[in-house]
């Protein structure tokens, strides 16, 4: 896991991971064919619509040029799809996509100059709507690489304002302004999509590397256990052939780096140096010590029961993970394999143990990453919704009360714009801390995204939920948040709702509370609004 993290950090120090860039290009390549087909279809429909309005010669030239560019782009798209995107060829494919989109955007921009002076207001409006639709389609496909979206949309959005500036008349300035505002909205969406997809691609590759390293480590551990099991069997055979020579067995295992032990009547009959190192007890202390004394209290009964069953049935135990308490009190995870042997003419368990604490900690970290919001430490959206659905079903089944809060930080965008995103992150962390410290341990807090939080309060009435929300709102309003030499205050708007008999699904309760939140914002923010 440490090696994978180091590799990711090394790539970041040299700019964007080439694999992420290739994944972006591949995403665009996969989604381009429908957009390309739609572009051609729209051009043909536009031709039919303006056939009697626009000058025939320029119109046919423009349509021929656009369809020719579409055909060229389709050819390169099919070729690149057949070859496939790699880290090496991704920049070249991206350049081809950029040139094709730029040429297409310029041709659509030319439509404004060629046809606007010659068509009616209805046809002008239709042409503007077509251009808007083309830009929206480009956003859906190319938002993961902002330069491609800009290559297509900038010529279009610039063409109509430039034409209006040259010859303003009628409703054309209004249409130009609306097209520009629409483009700015698309650009803001594109920026947000790009950030989200960047994080998604990055986390995907980091998690794949971590999982691959973890699997490789587990594979090596399993191979080691398999080899050790085979070795133990051979050694047992040698002991029988050499009249069960314990001295021979000690000679083979004493200096083994793997923990090797014999358990007889629930106590250590033999333990090598590796067992001593693993448990922190000396070899003399281990001799005769009860196995239960080094096992975690929760694991000991199951382990002793398995040993008794194996002694009764014979055979070999599959690898099992269990906890060991060292002499210094530290808990370590071990993977053990056991086999029934004869020791001093009495059945015993011969076992090996390998420290797998690092693997278990890696699994815990991955589990934490999958359920926790990195910034605030609260439950992430997916984990919160899973628990919310489970608690909703339990409350309906047993007739219990359940209260839901949806919380939104007021004017949070202004904090980011004025003080920067680091200050915004600190504000979110402080709000999460306030909520965590002022709600019960049984309550579940989650971050749905951005500045929106939610809290699930089991066994809570509507009045109690409103009181808890009002208490949190007042606390946030009066709390100074240090953002690096400056202090700010953040107010909260909240929607509160409790489970009703009419709520058939969690979504119905969530929607009611969401509606209450929006009502609180409408009424001036910094308030708690119960659901109607």
Largest sheet: 5 strands, antiparallel
Shape: extended
- E-strand count: 12
Order of helices and strands: HHHHHHHHEEHHHEEEHHEHHEEHEEEHE
Mean pLDDT over the residues: 79
Q: How many separate domains?
A: 3
Strand fraction band? 5-15%
Helix fraction by DSSP (H/I, runs of at least 4): 55-70%
Structure keywords:
17 helices; 14% strand; Alpha-Beta Plaits; Beta-Lactamase; 63% helix; 5-stranded antiparallel β-sheet; alpha+beta; 3 domains; 532 residues
Q: In short, what is this structure?
A:
With 532 residues, the protein is of the alpha+beta class. It is built from 17 helices and twelve strands. The protein has helices spanning 2-13, 18-50, 56-83, 90-115, 121-142, 146-166, 172-241, 246-253, 273-279, 283-286, 300-313, 357-371, 381-398, 412-419, 421-438, 462-477, 506-522; strands at residues 259-264, 267-271, 320-325, 331-343, 346-355, 402-409, 444-449, 452-458, 481-482, 487-488, 492-498, 528-530.
